[in-house]
Amino acid sequence: MPRISYVNGHYVPHNHATIQIEDRGFLMADAVYEVIGCIHGHMADETGHLDRLERSLSELQIAMPVERETLRFLMREVMRRNRQKNAAIYIQVTRGVAKRDFKFPSPDTPPTLVLISYDFDFDGNAAVKNGMKVKTVPDIRWQRRDIKTVLLLPQSMAKQSAVNDGLDDSWMVDPEGFITECSASNAWIVTKDKKLVTRGVTSEILRGITRTAIEKLCKEMNLVLEERSFTPQEAYDAVEAFTSSATALITPVIEIDGHKIGDGKRGDICKNLYEEYRAYVEGLRGKQVSWEAGL
């Protein structure tokens, strides 16, 4: 059975899925995307991801290609055709096809919609238990990081820099010396007095959907959360560190720039948050959260 993807109204064999050569997503990175995890048939934070998708499109003056409920159906249909229960669902919307020009094309240009589903073994993700090692690198991204665009070359360079050094990923640092994010996830530390710290929500970071769920869980678990900037040195001195994202979920960081974090193993707070998040995804912790930019 061939793998199936969706492109502009058609379910097609993945190896034959194409877009037009003058699509602005290809020529100009004029596009946004979302990734939604489906764990044992449960869509993780679907509402929040679709909230953010609509907001990203609005900020770039791109129309939603279909109604939200239609998009929800299309995601499930792609998974059904691929016989998947555990998957990462990739959604990309571009401004559509137009002659290459820096100005936007006519507002009635139809957006391009692409859906791809990838098999993903959430239960078998070794990094969740074993942790990952990261380095810090300068954050060289554009200034509207709150919009989830496909302009990902700086993040790819940050990731590859870590891989070249035999590490797992990079944490990016702004010109003032504060950590912004990991290459594809939000960055967290736990201080010696057991406070969770993550950068406040501004246009300098992408507010994660998993992050928003963690905020809810912190209240329910009586954990103290501080939204503020922190330095690499403060991260080195932390008792725990972790990242949060749609597919890696909540992953411990056990080393930063060669500094062992805590005892070099996944800490109790990270472990407990992960277990609570999995229960939350399966509907055992109430309604899943909505999302707002919070800028």
Structural class by helix and strand composition = alpha+beta
Low-confidence stretches: none
Q: Label the overall shape.
A: globular
Mean pLDDT: 97
Largest sheet: 9 strands, mixed
CATH superfamily of the largest domain: D-amino Acid Aminotransferase, subunit A, domain 2
The CATH architecture of the largest domain comes to Alpha-Beta Barrel
**Count of distinct strands:** 15
Number of domains: 2
Query: What is the percent of helical residues?
Result: 25-40%
* CATH uppermost class of the largest domain: Alpha Beta
CATH topology of the largest domain: D-amino Acid Aminotransferase, Chain A, domain 2
What does this structure look like?
By secondary structure, the protein is of the alpha+beta class. The protein has 2 domains: 4-119, 2-Layer Sandwich (D-amino Acid Aminotransferase, Chain A, domain 1), CATH 3.30.470.10; 126-281, Alpha-Beta Barrel (D-amino Acid Aminotransferase, Chain A, domain 2). Helix content is 27%, strand content 26%. The protein is built from 8 helices and 15 strands. The protein has helices spanning 24-28, 46-59, 68-81, 126-130, 153-164, 209-220, 232-236, 268-281; strands spanning 4-7, 10-13, 31-39, 42-43, 87-94, 112-119, 132-138, 169-173, 179-182, 186-190, 196-198, 225-227, 240-245, 249-256, 259-260. The strands form 2 sheets. Strands 7, 8, 9, 10, 11, 12, 13, 14 and 15 form a 9-stranded mixed beta sheet that branches. The chain has a 6-stranded antiparallel beta sheet with strand order 2-1-6-5-3-4. The longest helix has 14 residues, at 46-59. The chain is globular. The model has no long low-confidence stretch (mean pLDDT 97).
